[in-house]
């Protein structure tokens, strides 16, 4: 199979693709993916195809019919070579999309490359025709085309092609460094001013640390591909030999929170080369690009990776303790603010992510596999450390699963993936204790795991600290709001709060408070300030629910509802707790 990629009018965002394959069947199915790995919802990429036609080796038009939203049946009786010519509208710019304009061609082949299903494991060639002055960033090995315009790549199968994003541009900025004999490349596309010394110093630390931790890498070289946008953006997608990270705005790239985000997403996505690209759930071995790849293991695939993405930055000295705790506190906050944790387990939430993707969905229905999985990974790490008397940790579990997955193409895990029970057994192997309680009640159950978090934190001399949030309407009434086009919209209601029992619900519009009209800005400041102004007195709130105007009388309960949640060191700790903390972080208590 062969792909020829070109374009004529970059400003229209249409990429031209020709797919060529030898055939010897009366009918040939041609499939376009509906899903890309790294995203737990369908993409339905066929919606971006404008023109689609089939020809034989002599250019004769072949008849075809569409059998599903993204599959075509072509009549190929007597045809020796099938040519499919189609175009793809590439206007989205994020870490998993395909994009074309006058400045760059950015391509995720899994979005836009068709394939013949029964030949998905065959080698395939890719030719990309681009201007002569374009540089190319790609994790796979490439070579210039003979005519000098573009590049060619030979992939061992469609899976490798699908896993190999490409950025081609005249404005790519590049640097590289070496860790443990492996070349790591950093590429930036977009308006930004990389400080290479600072970048390579920090990247070397966490890359080297991951290499040392996992002992062996699933890649010979690795490429960090950064799409830098002029607006706010944070997104990353993992691949085996590369990652694409979309960040912005470019003017903040090397400072403050955005630089911390750059480090965090890069460390996270690199760890994915092991965890999910190689250590893969059984349901995703191999990938099926045509439909949902249901799995309950999101708490491992994304949760464990999220845990390590931040934790390893602390452990290798890139993050200071305060920087790490800030990231951990964000996960804690989201956990305690999400009442979906009482309705659906993190394992079931992983399975159901395919229903509504990354949107919040209906109120209080599910949990977030990244946030909840992170906290459960921390709990599991402490569980192993405590029961093995600090001989082992979650590191050992990940090394073990990687060794199993990488052992042979026909091994127990290699080629077939791992199950949730395989993960449980691995945890028990290194803890030397039963994992049943956590596995049943907290990973696959909806038991409140605040006590579990407290126990895990106490092991390293830490605790949960809570204090009322600053906004009176949140801590005293249990209402969160945002301003939407001048309307004060309710975005969250604390379960069983005075607002909840008074009949106020998510998406209601707050109209007045004690007779004062509410006209908020985007943050809802107007309503927040009126609540603070009236203080701890009964409040009459007039609101609209689905167009019906209602009123409620609320008696505030200051400090009762939404709270700021943090993990901090205990005031009094013993020597054992100090040592446990130091073994976990590598820092002095």
Characterize the structure shown.
The chain folds into 3 domains: 2-169, Immunoglobulin-like; 325-464 and 568-589, no CATH class; 472-554, PDZ domain (Pdz3 Domain). The longest helix has 19 residues, at 196-214. The N and C termini lie far apart (58 Å). Residues 408-414 have low confidence and may be disordered. The protein is α+β, with helices and mostly antiparallel strands. Helix content is 31%, strand content 27%. The strands form 6 sheets. It has an 8-stranded mixed β-sheet. The radius of gyration is 26 Å and the shape is globular. Strand 19 and strand 20 (242-248) form a beta hairpin.
Topology:
Layout lengths: L1 E5 L7 E9 L4 E5 L17 E7 L5 E2 L1 E5 L2 E5 L5 E9 L9 E2 L3 E4 L1 H4 L11 E5 L6 E4 L4 E2 L6 E5 L2 H5 L3 E4 L3 E7 L2 E8 L6 H19 L6 E8 L4 E6 L3 E7 L7 H17 L25 H18 L5 H17 L8 H11 L12 H19 L6 H12 L14 H12 L4 H8 L6 H10 L2 E7 L3 H6 L1 E6 L2 E7 L4 H4 L7 E5 L2 E2 L7 H10 L4 E7 L2 E7 L8 E7 L5 H11 L4
Parallel strand pairs: 1-11, 17-18, 18-20
Antiparallel strand pairs: 1-2, 2-8, 3-7, 4-5, 4-8, 6-7, 9-10, 10-15, 11-14, 12-15, 13-14, 16-17, 19-20, 21-28, 22-23, 23-24, 24-25, 24-26, 26-27
Observed structural traits:
Immunoglobulin-like; 589 residues; alpha+beta; Pdz3 Domain
Quick recap:
The protein is α+β, with helices and mostly antiparallel strands and 589 residues long.
| Count of separate structural domains | 3
Write the CATH architecture name of the largest domain: Sandwich
Number of strands: 28
- Into which percent range does the helicity of residues fall? 25-40%
How would the global form be characterised? globular
Number of helical regions: 16
Q: Kindly report the average pLDDT value.
A: 95
Q: What is the terminal-to-terminal distance?
A: 58 Å
CATH class type of the largest domain: Mainly Beta
Multimeric state: single chain
For the sheet with most strands, the description reads:
8 strands, mixed
**Beta-strand content bin:** 25-35%
CATH topology name of the largest domain: Immunoglobulin-like
Low-confidence stretches: 408-414
Class per helix and strand makeup: alpha+beta
Please give the order of strands in the largest beta sheet: 5-4-8-2-1-11-14-13
Q: Report the radius of gyration as a whole number of Å.
A: 26 Å
């Amino acid at each position: 199979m062969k792909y020829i990629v070109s374009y004529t009018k970059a400003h229209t965002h249409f990429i031209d693709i020709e797919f060529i394959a030898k055939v010897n069947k009366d009918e040939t199915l041609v499939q376009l993916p509906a899903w890309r790995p790294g995203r737990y919802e369908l993409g339905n990429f066929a919606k971006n195809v404008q023109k689609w036609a089939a020809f034989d080796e002599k250019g004769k038009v072949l008849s075809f019919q569409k059998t599903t939203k993204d599959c075509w049946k072509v009549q190929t009786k007597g045809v020796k070579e099938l040519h499919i010519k189609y175009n793809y509208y590439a206007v989205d710019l994020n870490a998993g999309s395909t994009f074309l304009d006058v400045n760059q061609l950015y391509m995720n082949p899994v979005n836009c490359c068709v394939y013949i299903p029964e030949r998905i494991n065959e080698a395939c060639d890719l030719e990309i025709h681009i201007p002569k002055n374009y540089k190319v960033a790609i994790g796979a090995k490439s070579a210039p085309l003979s005519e000098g315009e573009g590049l060619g790549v030979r992939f061992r199968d469609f899976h490798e092609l699908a896993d190999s994003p490409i950025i081609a541009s005249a404005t790519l900025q590049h640097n590289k460094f070496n860790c443990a004999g492996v070349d790591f490349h950093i590429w930036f596309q977009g308006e930004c001013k990389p400080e290479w010394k600072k970048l390579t110093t920090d990247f070397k630390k966490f890359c080297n640390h991951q290499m040392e931790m996992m002992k062996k890498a699933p890649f010979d070289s690795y490429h960090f591909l950064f799409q830098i946008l002029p607006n706010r953006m944070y997104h990353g997608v993992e691949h085996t030999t590369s990652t694409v990270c979309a960040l912005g705005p470019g003017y903040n790239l090397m400072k403050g929170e955005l630089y911390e985000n750059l480090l965090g997403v890069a460390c996270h996505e690199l760890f994915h080369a092991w965890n999910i690209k190689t250590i893969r759930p059984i349901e995703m071995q191999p990938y099926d690009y045509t439909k949902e790849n249901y799995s309950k293991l999101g708490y491992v695939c994304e949760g464990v990776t999220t845990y390590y993405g931040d934790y390893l930055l602390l452990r290798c000295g890139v993050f200071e303790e305060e920087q790490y705790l800030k990231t951990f506190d964000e996960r804690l906050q989201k956990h305690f603010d999400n009442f979906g944790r009482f309705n659906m387990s993190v394992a079931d939430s992983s399975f159901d992510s395919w229903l509504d993707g990354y949107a919040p969905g209906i109120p209080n229905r599910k949990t977030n596999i990244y946030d909840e999985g992170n906290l459960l990974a921390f709990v599991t790490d402490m569980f192993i450390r405590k029961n093995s008397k600090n001989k082992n940790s979650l590191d050992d579990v990940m090394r073990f699963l990687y060794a199993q997955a990488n052992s042979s193409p026909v091994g127990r895990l290699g080629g077939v993936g791992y199950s949730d029970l395989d993960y449980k057994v691995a945890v028990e192997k290194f803890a030397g204790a039963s994992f049943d309680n956590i596995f049943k009640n907290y990973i696959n159950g909806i038991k409140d795991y605040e006590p579990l978090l407290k126990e895990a934190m106490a092991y390293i001399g830490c605790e949960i600290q809570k204090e009322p949030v600053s906004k009176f309407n949140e801590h005293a009434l249990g209402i969160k709001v945002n301003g939407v086009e001048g309307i004060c919209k309710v975005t969250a209601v604390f379960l069983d709060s005075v607002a909840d029992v008074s009949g106020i619900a998510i998406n209601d519009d707050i109209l007045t408070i004690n007779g004062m009209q509410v006209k908020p800005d985007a943050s809802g400041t107007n309503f927040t300030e009126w609540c603070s102004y009236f203080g701890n007195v009964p409040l009459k709130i007039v609101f609209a629910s689905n167009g019906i105007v209602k009123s409620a009388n609320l008696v505030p309960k200051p400090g009762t509802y939404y709270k700021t949640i943090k993990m901090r060191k205990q005031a009094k700790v013993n020597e054992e707790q100090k040592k446990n903390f130091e073994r976990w972080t590598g820092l002095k208590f």
